């Protein structure tokens, strides 16, 4: 499995998603009423930061979305666009199979199923 690394908050971090991370993201954003794949195409900062948070919380147990938003703000001014972070996060999410199926993110931002699902959404 490929490691999905980003430099954020002053150090290198690795995205990793488990089913518990998926549930935490869905719960934090919409009380669990939406599937995470539906959220991938939503480009609000709250959704993007929450998806990033879900993939990094294994590294820092008390990590919260507000801290991630601070890191993203710094990233935007010093490194690049948020899409660099969200695309890497979505690739890690798809590879980790926390959604129940394996997918990747194409260069145009569309999800591409690697195990029989049809293309869905965009990031």
Q: How is this structure best described in words?
A:
The chain is α+β, with helices and mostly antiparallel strands. It has one domain (4-122). The protein has five helices and five strands. It has helices at 19-30, 36-40, 45-56, 65-78, 82-96, and strands at residues 4-8, 11-15, 103-105, 110-113, 120-122. The strands form two sheets. It has a three-stranded antiparallel sheet. Strands 1-2 form a two-stranded antiparallel sheet. Helix 3 packs across helix 5 (82-96). The longest helix is centred in the last third of the chain and has 15 residues, at 82-96. The protein starts with a strand and ends with a strand. The model is unreliable at 118-123 (pLDDT under 50).
Chart the SSEs and their pairings.
Layout: E1 4-8, E2 11-15, H1 19-30, H2 36-40, H3 45-56, H4 65-78, H5 82-96, E3 103-105, E4 110-113, E5 120-122
Antiparallel strand pairs: 1-2, 3-4, 4-5
Helix pairs in contact: 1-3, 3-4, 3-5
Strand content: 15-25%
The averaged pLDDT comes out at 84
Compute the number of strand runs: 5
Tell me the number of structural domains.
Answer: 1
Report the helical percentage: 40-55%
In sequence order, what are the helices and strands, one letter per element? EEHHHHHEEE
Q: Which structural class is indicated by helix and strand composition?
A: alpha+beta
Which strand order does the major sheet show?
3-4-5
The tally of helices reads 5
Distance between the termini: 22 Å
Radius of gyration (CA) equals 13 Å
């Amino acid at each position: 499995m490929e490691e999905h690394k980003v430099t954020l908050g002053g150090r290198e971090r690795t995205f990793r998603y488990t089913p518990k991370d998926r549930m935490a993201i869905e719960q934090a954003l919409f009380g669990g009423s939406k599937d995470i794949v539906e959220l991938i195409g939503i480009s609000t900062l709250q959704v993007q930061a929450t998806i990033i948070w879900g993939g990094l919380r294994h590294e820092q147990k008390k990590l919260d979305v507000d801290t991630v938003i601070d890191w993203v703000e710094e990233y935007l001014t010093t490194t690049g666009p948020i899409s660099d972070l969200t695309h890497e996060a979505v690739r890690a999410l798809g590879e980790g199979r926390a959604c129940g199926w394996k997918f990747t993110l194409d260069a145009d931002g569309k999800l591409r199923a690697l195990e029989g699902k049809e293309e869905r959404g965009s990031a």
